[in-house]
Design brief:
The complex is a heterodimer of chains A (about 110) and B (about 550).
Chain A: E1 11-18, E2 24-27, E3 33-34, E4 43-44, H1 46-54, H2 57-61, E5 65-76, E6 79-82, H3 85-92, H4 102-105
Antiparallel strand pairs in A: 1-2, 1-4, 1-5, 2-3, 5-6
Chain B: H1 6-28, H2 33-42, E1 45-47, E2 52-56, E3 62-64, H3 65-78, E4 82-85, E5 91-93, H4 101-110, E6 127-128, H5 142-153, E7 168-171, E8 185-191, E9 197-203, E10 215-222, H6 226-240, H7 251-258, H8 260-277, H9 284-293, H10 307-315, H11 317-326, E11 327-329, E12 335-340, E13 351-353, H12 354-367, E14 371-374, E15 380-386, H13 390-398, E16 414-415, H14 430-439, H15 443-449, E17 454-457, E18 471-478, E19 481-488, E20 500-501, E21 506-507, H16 508-525, H17 532-539, H18 542-548
Parallel strand pairs in B: 6-7, 7-8, 16-17, 17-18
Antiparallel strand pairs in B: 1-2, 2-5, 3-14, 4-5, 4-13, 8-9, 9-10, 11-12, 12-15, 14-15, 18-19, 19-20, 19-21
Helix pairs in contact in B: 1-2, 1-4, 3-12, 5-9, 6-8, 7-8, 10-11, 14-16, 16-17, 16-18
The chains are: A alpha+beta (about 110), B alpha+beta (about 550).
Amino acid sequence: MAQHTRKGAQFQSVTANRLQDGIVVYLTADGRWSESLQDAAVAEGKEAAEALLAKAEPSVADNTVVEPYLFEVSPENDRLSAASVREIIRQAGPTVRPDLGKQAELADAQC
Amino acid sequence: MYRYDEFDHQLVNERVAQFANQVARRLSGELTEDEFKPLRLMNGVYLQLHAYMLRIAIPYGTLSSRQLRMLAHIGRTYDRGYGHFTTRQNLQFNWPALKDVPDILKDLASVEMHCIQTSGNCIRNVTSDQYAGAAKNEIEDPRIISEIIRQWSTFHPEFSFLPRKFKIAVSGTPDDRAAIRVHDIGIQIVQDGAGNIGYEVYVGGGLGRTPMIAKKIADFVPKEDLLAYLEAVMRVYNMYGRRDNMYKSRIKILVHEIGAEEMKRQVDAEFAEIRKAGTLHLPQEEVDRIQAYFRPPAFETLPDESTELNKAVLADTGFANWVKSNIAAHKIPGYAIVNISLKPIGGTPGDCTSDQMDAVADIAEKFSFDEVRVTHEQNLTLAHVRKKDLYAVYEALKAHDLATPNINLITDQIACPGLDYCSLANARSIPIAQRISERFADIARQHEIGELKINTSGCINACGHHHVGHIGILGVDKKGVEYYQVTLGGAADEKTAIGDIVGPAFTEDEIVDAVEKVVNIYLDKREAGERFIDTYRRIGLAPFKENLYATH
């Protein structure tokens, strides 16, 4: 399973790609998948993160998503942001095509 | 150009039906991702950062207008209205949905195209010279043997599970525009003293984390024996190539470890065995059949000078600049080769919208015998245009933002998709290329600098060919921050060289200034008539290194 998070990360969320169309999605607290990072469940600490990742397994088994993994997030001012450049780009879309991806498709506050 | 026969049609249609079934079984859950992944990769479907990516094979970079229109249609219907031409002369779509891929493959099959062997540990799409059939000093059209290799290698059962992927490139002229020395096998078409055509064979070239220049192991393989010889190389690699470590599994590592002499000895021994069996003798009638597809088009008898062209050059400075950099000499009097830059100032190297694809298809149909070439430097080529039509072609291209006059100049850069799209990347490539392009946008300055190739890769896998850029830029990740390492003196032509690392990496904010400094050092040190690479070869790394880091 892919691992794109920092070892000592305090806050982590789970992301994956949707099987049907490959679109980036985030695991929510109630076990659904949202296209918006702002809906993602946040786990604090290693154990909580592993438990959150385990919650993704049924969605792999029922073919909703592929390749779920943990990544580091920063919850600041009621807004979640990804820590790495890679995850910021996955969340928003290509930096060279602001007209494409979630940065264009989702309302700004939802991205 | 080559047209499918009944076997090609059957083979591709069967594969489309097979993969459609596999996609349906994956979506229904009958296949797990672990079971499906190798199957989708065999059909060119990757999972990237934002979505799936579909890689379409363009054999030796040759497309008909009809095929290009179909690519435009697919981009518009199933993707986001654009595609990306790659350093493998292929096209990638960045946003297809998995559920749509079977329909895309059906559309491709309707114009004799597919995605077979664009991924996986097999012999990939054969690449070649975009000037095939048009270059002045061509010994033989390299597409003939490229097509024969394509047919031989397609679904070859012995070579479907190699230690690693395998890339073959063919050049028909002494000037290498196909980068054959950085391929697993490079084939140089040659002629002996008696006028017989044969092949020099280079093996073990490649880029990636361990860049190597291929070693020549055969000076003259006779035409009828080429497939037998290639099969001998493949067998030695298949037997001794490492399967225990993917970073050491390419043929370049095998050749490096046992040495070119030993590689040659083993290939020759295998070749002798194959020849004894006599099963792989290439029949002349089959060569003739393939050759007929690449017969020269019906060229007109024209004077080499065109008064229309000369007048237009004098009247229109923009056109004069375009002629100066984007036009190459053709072997037939009165004709020219037109290079279409996919590197507009500040644009994404290799990207082409569906509307632009349609426009190029129309222009090719009207002015260049219905045919388009894709270059490994991520541009397009119209191989056969009458000189008297050049102005009309320029005007038509200009209307679609396709007349950037910068071929081989500093803004004609190679860049991989990088971290904007690619799940393997460590850093972004495209924005760096865009900012360099903007910095050097002035056309007079570009001409003053002359030929200079900047290649950028977003990771060590080197899809952006940074090792062989005159200036190479490699994106690296340092604790989540993008840095860029610079190499100098690389080249991918007949004098192939791997660039030298100049020193510590630069930040994103520093890299464009660093490139400009390198250019200024070259301008300061160059002697009359020298290109960047000539100056570098004369003075070496030291003056660049000293000055580049002087205030760094």
